[in-house]
Amino acid sequence: MNIKRIYKRDEFGKTISVRPDKESLENFVKKHKVLPTIKRATYFGEKYAGSIGEQYGFINALYQQPQIVEYMLKNNPTDRRMQINLWQRAHFAKAVLPSCVFDILFTVIDGTLHATVIQRSADVPAGLPFNIAQYALLVNMFAKVAGLKVGTLTWTIMNAHIYVDQEEPIRQQIRRYEYMKEYEKLILTSTDETVERKYNNVKDKFELLNKKVFAGLSYLYSSSEQFKNKIGEYTKNADVLTTEIFDKIPMSKRYTILDIALKEYNLSLMENSKDYEEAFERKISFEHMLTRGNPKIELEDHKSIFDYSTEYAPKGDAYYEQNQTGNKELLLKDYHPTPFIAVPVAQ
Questions:
Q1: What is the mean pLDDT of the chain?
Q2: Can you give the pTM of this predicted structure?
Q3: Is 24 a catalytic residue?
Q4: Which of 9, 125, 180, 246 is the most buried (most CB within 10 A)?
Q5: How many C-beta atoms lie closer than 10 Å to residue 261's C-beta?
Q6: 3, 100, 105, 187: which one is catalytic?
Q7: pLDDT of 118-135, one tens digit each?
Q8: All structural domains of the chain with their residue ranges
Q9: Which CATH superfamily hosts domain 63-163?
Q10: How much is the average pLDDT of 59-66?
């Protein structure tokens, strides 16, 4: 079901469509008894968006596909029809969004569970990492309850894309990857003393720049009420920019503040924000290569995947300090991520 759109020509003679008003949309939704969708939310606001998760859950509940797969893994693991398919055309009219990851097939070879995932469309920076973790966990859960070893996860994407407003975060990730390759080669081919000396040089460069940046920003903060008000959201409107406050500001926000200071307030005797950013990226990339392990998942013993709890430990819980998943039945060991990169979600 489509909302009727108005078509007209722009100043260059190109035909464009114009969204209808909210009253027209509300009448359409009421008349046709359709659910809100992400596309409608794009034009008319969040209240017109439903939940993708509920739609996926509806399909699984209707056809009981996960239950069937679990039963076959336990009772007939050589079956060639073990599949969870979310591409149910009969329900598209009610779908918030046609399933992006829509098919997963399972096969057991010599007591090892392998899976193949098919994805029609992938938001590579924001959606894909979650999708991979999601299905990797599902395979681990199925293997655990069926007494099987975990094998391979094969992934096929038809349309992998990056949205325009995601370009810079992706470039940041690629820079980190290049630094990591550089430091991996150094670690594998050099003595411990050489590696330690190189790391100390990288760390010292960042710390020196960090001190210069803080000194310049704290001076401007104390001498310009306008600047203080402009970045107040980052400093919680404190009277003085202290090291304690500065250290709690995420690096991505520090770059923003530094750019404002350099471009709008002509703050001199300071490093360019790109130099500062590179020094930090090199430091954390080096530290990641020195501390990374081989991540592994440990799951509680259960008879069914549906027995796993979704309860999370509160942040003050001692368990949470040792296991950042927060879920008491899912332990992720030897996983050392680099600091978070903010990636916009685009639709």
A1: 85
A2: 0.77
A3: no
A4: 125
A5: 23
A6: 100
A7: 999 999 998 999 999 999
A8: 6-48, 63-163, 167-280
A9: Thymidylate synthase/dCMP hydroxymethylase domain (3.30.572.10)
A10: 87
